[in-house]
């Protein structure tokens, strides 16, 4: 991407800015264990957990910063999300 | 004509469309003058009475981003209050021209002249030009717009002139005609602007992947400004008859053994002192630094290559280090083995006279330098 002089940007530009690069740990979702309760989607501060047509959830790693709140808040009976260290 | 009024009249000739300003001594007469000019219908511009300098420059950013040519002026504490906005205006690459009536910084409170205020903004990414007299002060305003608005540059600029010593002094100036200024400058044609029909945002957020590249490009633009000032300075000479194609100007420097480096109105005093010293057979010359940012290192090194001693007159001090100009001159002359002596002087309006310049040359010849010159030992 060529830089705009004066750091100017067109509308919608934040979609191009993949903030997921900040991450140290990334969440891995086990759809077998998932009870489809939706807690992870509600708790995600970045709004990057989306519901699929089959009611399971997937995580948008382009924008997930790896805070781990989804893994922490996933109910004890499921514990469907765990954090894995990024290998860069 | 009073310096401030000459500057106000020159700004009128540059036809800025928006002037947000807040009065502060010794800049007041400039913005007062501009307010009168607009009220009298001699300039079609929006004059915004703001509640602080922070707002003044913020309004400049908004107006410039919206596609207007803008002007403001300030000094000292006003510039200090603007600090955050100064860096923003530069990072957004907006061609704002601002006059600085150089004044000391508090505390202790002083309304008098030195150059600490603009030196404080050394690293902000603005162009900094320093005028020796009021003619240069007004010429540099016109030149600054020309350089700043070049699409290859797109930077804001400070035009610095010593408070009171220039701003309040009456001296003859050649005020150019409107036709000449129009032919040199032309109307402002923004590179990009805020437009609801084609929206953009200025000064966006840059992640660690991009921030350094923005800073690099900004730095490159400030470096490029050196050639642009020379090019348009030459063009200025062809149009107005006064040449600004050099960022450093020598006075009796060609055969000088001792060189004095200085910035601003003090150069006039130095020239008179040099004339008297030459009459006594002392080979002294002056290097007048017209442009502090971009810093013309190569030009300085070339101009000073033949001298035996360099004395730098600093109307500022980087406390705990040296004067800002001396630091740059030492860097420019690194490897040459020419001794560079720094003299901090004229702070807070302390007069510098011809006899002081002569005394400094004597001190430099004895190898005594890197000092506050002219301290009143009895009050310490």
Automatic annotation (TrEMBL), chain A:
Q: Which organism is it from?
A: Methanocorpusculum labreanum (strain ATCC 43576 / DSM 4855 / Z)
**EC number(s) from the headed UniProt entry:** 1.2.7.1
NCBIfam families reported in the protein's UniProt record: PorD_KorD
Q: InterPro entries this protein is in?
A: 4Fe4S_Fe-S-bd, 4Fe4S_Fe_S_CS, PorD_KorD
What GO molecular-function term can you cite, just one? metal ion binding
Top-level taxon: Archaea
* Annotated PROSITE patterns: 4FE4S_FER_1, 4FE4S_FER_2
- Has UniProt tagged this entry with the keyword Electron transport? yes
Q: What is the protein's quaternary organization?
A: Heterotetramer of one alpha, one beta, one delta and one gamma chain.
* SUPFAM superfamilies tied to this protein: 4Fe-4S ferredoxins
Alphabetized, the UniProt keywords read: 4Fe-4S, Electron transport, Iron, Iron-sulfur, Metal-binding, Oxidoreductase, Pyruvate, Repeat, Transport
Ranges for domain 4Fe-4S ferredoxin-type:
25-54, 55-86
The protein's name: Pyruvate ferredoxin oxidoreductase, delta subunit
Which cofactors, by name?
[4Fe-4S] cluster
Note the Pfam families from the entry.
Fer4_7 (PF12838)
Q: Which PANTHER family match?
A: PYRUVATE SYNTHASE SUBUNIT PORD (PTHR43724)
Q: What class of enzyme is it?
A: oxidoreductase
């Amino acid at each position: 991407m060529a830089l705009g002089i004066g750091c100017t940007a067109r509308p919608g530009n934040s979609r191009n800015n993949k903030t997921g690069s900040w991450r140290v740990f990334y969440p891995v979702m086990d759809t077998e264990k998932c009870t489809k309760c939706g807690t992870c989607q509600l708790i995600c501060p970045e709004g990057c957990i989306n519901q699929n047509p089959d009611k399971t959830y997937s995580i948008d790693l382009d924008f997930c910063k790896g805070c781990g709140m989804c893994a922490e808040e996933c109910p004890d009976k499921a514990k469907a999300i765990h954090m894995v260290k990024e290998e860069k | 004509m009073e310096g401030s009024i000459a500057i106000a009249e020159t700004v009128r000739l540059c036809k800025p469309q928006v002037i947000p300003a807040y009065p502060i001594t010794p800049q007041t007469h400039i913005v007062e003058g501009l307010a009168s000019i607009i009220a009298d219908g001699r300039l079609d511009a929006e004059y915004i009475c703001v509640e602080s300098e922070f707002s003044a420059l913020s309004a400049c950013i908004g107006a410039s981003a919206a596609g207007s040519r803008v002007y403001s002026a300030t000094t000292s504490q006003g510039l200090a209050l603007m600090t955050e906005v100064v860096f923003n205006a530069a990072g957004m690459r907006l061609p704002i021209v601002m006059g600085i009536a150089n004044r000391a910084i508090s505390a202790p409170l002083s309304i008098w002249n030195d150059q600490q205020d603009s030196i404080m903004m050394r690293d902000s990414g603005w162009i900094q030009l320093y005028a020796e007299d009021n003619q240069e002060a007004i010429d540099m305003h016109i030149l600054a717009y020309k350089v700043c608005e070049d699409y290859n540059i797109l930077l804001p600029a400070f035009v610095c002139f010593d408070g009171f010593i220039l701003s309040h002094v009456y001296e003859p100036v050649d005020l150019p005609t409107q036709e000449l200024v129009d032919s040199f400058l032309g109307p402002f044609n923004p590179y990009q602007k805020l437009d609801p029909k084609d929206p953009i945002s200025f000064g966006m957020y840059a992640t660690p992947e991009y921030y350094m590249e923005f800073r690099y490009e900004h730095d490159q633009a400030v470096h490029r400004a050196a050639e642009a000032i020379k090019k348009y300075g030459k063009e200025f000479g062809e149009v107005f008859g006064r040449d600004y194609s050099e960022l450093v100007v020598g006075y009796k420097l060609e055969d000088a053994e001792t060189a004095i480096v200085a910035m601003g109105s003090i150069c006039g005093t130095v020239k008179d002192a040099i004339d008297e010293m030459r009459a006594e057979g002392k080979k002294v010359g002056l290097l007048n630094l017209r442009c502090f940012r971009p810093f013309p290192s190569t030009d300085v090194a070339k101009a000073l290559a033949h001298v035996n001693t360099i004395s730098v007159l600093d109307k500022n001090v980087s406390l705990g280090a040296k004067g800002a100009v001396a630091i740059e001159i030492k860097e420019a002359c690194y490897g040459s083995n020419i001794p560079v002596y720094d003299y901090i002087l004229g702070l807070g309006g302390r007069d510098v006279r011809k006899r002081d310049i002569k005394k400094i040359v004597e001190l430099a010849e004895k190898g005594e330098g890197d000092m506050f010159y002219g301290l009143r030992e009895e009050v310490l």
